[in-house]
Amino acid sequence: MAPALVTVVICVLVGAVLFTPMLLARRRAPQERGLVPAFETYCSGRGTNLPMYRLSIYDSFLVVAFLSPTVIPFAQVARTDVRGTAFGRRLHIETKRGAAYDLAVGDLDRALQLLNGT
Prior knowledge:
118 residues, PH-domain like
């Protein structure tokens, strides 16, 4: 196989690996179809600068999407706060089931206000 062809194939594979989570994060859960979120942003997770996560905040639940959307009712949110890291400030969301999310949200104050106002 020609070295140039191998290089092109590798670049396509790397691009697919990087873009797949970004595209899959845009899928909607059945609970959010037809609803308009009060807040929505595409953000990065821990240690990356690629917007691979979607955070959508609705009236009674929030959605964190990476490869598939995860619907979290506000009754299941244990704590939300802002944490400073070497990569900047992150929105930290903990659920009562033990899941934790650290998201680099652009409008951190607005997201925190909506989450704490519930």
